[in-house]
């Protein structure tokens, strides 16, 4: 039977199944709680347990015994044992998400067409990238150079980062990606970046236009809107050769 999780500041509530963490339930129901690693190491998801009972599924380094005694909890590991009331920060602006430099590994390279590939990038087990649907990252290349690519996956589906890469003759990264890049290659990136993202609190219809690989951020936005149960009309116009 699901338990009721109530946010003390606004009295909004959402259900959490008996086998899911408070963070998992919050993200599933459209609440943007901050997080970093999702395995109890970084402490980014720390909040306060005001009322109710929880237990932890794993050992944690992101919270001290003293903090636990003071009522703090790591929501990425806390599983409710009853209805609970929590004190939690919600992210509603780009500036509230930390821009980070992180390593990642190429787990899959998929040929989508003769000049477009899809890359799947996996972060270390101790890391997750928090971002808003529609944002992008900068791949960090040699000699301080960067190349920007939109995230094609939605925030609720963050096991891997998905990039769509078009081949350009002489392109600094695209030539490498198409002719040399191999699965298991280690890359580095900076992000999330950008102010194009899904406005979850808006009721206005969405009209989106994209060409070619400009589909990538739109894909993430639409997938996340559908995941949240957004009822607004969505019109998408995509030009491709």
SSE blueprint and pairings:
Layout: E1 3-7, E2 13-16, H1 22-28, E3 46-51, E4 54-56, H2 65-69, E5 72-74, E6 78-80, E7 84-87, E8 100-113, E9 116-122, E10 136-140, E11 146-150, E12 161-166, H3 174-179, E13 186-193, E14 206-211, H4 215-227, E15 234-239
Parallel strand pairs: 1-7, 14-15
Antiparallel strand pairs: 1-2, 3-5, 3-7, 4-6, 8-9, 8-13, 9-12, 10-11, 10-13
- The CATH homologous superfamily of the largest domain is named Translation factors
Q: Major sheet, described briefly?
A: 6 strands, antiparallel
Quickly count the domains: 2
Separation of the first and last Cα atoms: 50 Å
Quote the average pLDDT: 92
Count all strands and give the number. 15
CATH class of the largest domain: Mainly Beta
Number of helices: 4
Principal-axes geometry comes out as: globular
- The SSE order reads EEHEEHEEEEEEEEHEEHE
Fold-level CATH name of the largest domain: Elongation Factor Tu (Ef-tu), domain 3
* Helix-and-strand structural type: mainly beta
The residue ranges in which pLDDT falls below 50 over 5 or more consecutive positions are: none
Portion of residues within helices: 10-25%
Strand content: 35-45%
Strand order of the largest sheet: 11-10-13-8-9-12
Based on the structure given, which CATH architecture of the largest domain is correct? Beta Barrel
Radius of gyration computed on alpha carbons: 20 Å
């Amino acid at each position: 039977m699901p338990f009721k999780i109530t946010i003390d500041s606004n009295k909004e509530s959402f259900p959490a199944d008996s086998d899911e963490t408070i963070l998992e339930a919050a993200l599933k129901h459209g609440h943007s709680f901050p997080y970093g690693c999702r395995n109890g190491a970084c402490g980014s998801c720390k909040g306060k347990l005001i009322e109710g009972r929880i237990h932890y599924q794993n050992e944690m380094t992101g919270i001290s015994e003293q903090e636990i005694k003071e009522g703090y909890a790591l929501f990425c590991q806390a599983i409710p044992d009853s209805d609970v009331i929590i004190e939690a920060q919600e992210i509603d602006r780009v500036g509230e998400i930390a821009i980070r430099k992180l390593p990642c590994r190429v787990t899959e390279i998929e040929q989508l067409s003769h000049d477009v590939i899809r890359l799947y990038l996996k972060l270390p087990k101790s890391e997750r990238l928090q971002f808003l649907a529609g944002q992008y990252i900068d791949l960090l290349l040699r000699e301080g150079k960067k190349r920007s690519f939109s995230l094609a996956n939605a925030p609720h589906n963050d096991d891997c980062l998905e990039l769509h890469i078009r081949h350009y003759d002489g392109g600094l990264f695209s030539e490498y990606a198409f002719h040399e890049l191999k699965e298991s290659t280690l890359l580095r990136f900076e992000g999330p970046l950008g102010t194009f993202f899904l406005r979850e609190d808006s009721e206005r219809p969405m009209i989106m236009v994209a060409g070619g690989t400009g589909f990538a951020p739109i894909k993430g936005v639409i997938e996340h809107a559908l995941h949240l149960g957004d009822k607004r009309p969505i019109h998408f116009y995509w030009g491709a050769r």
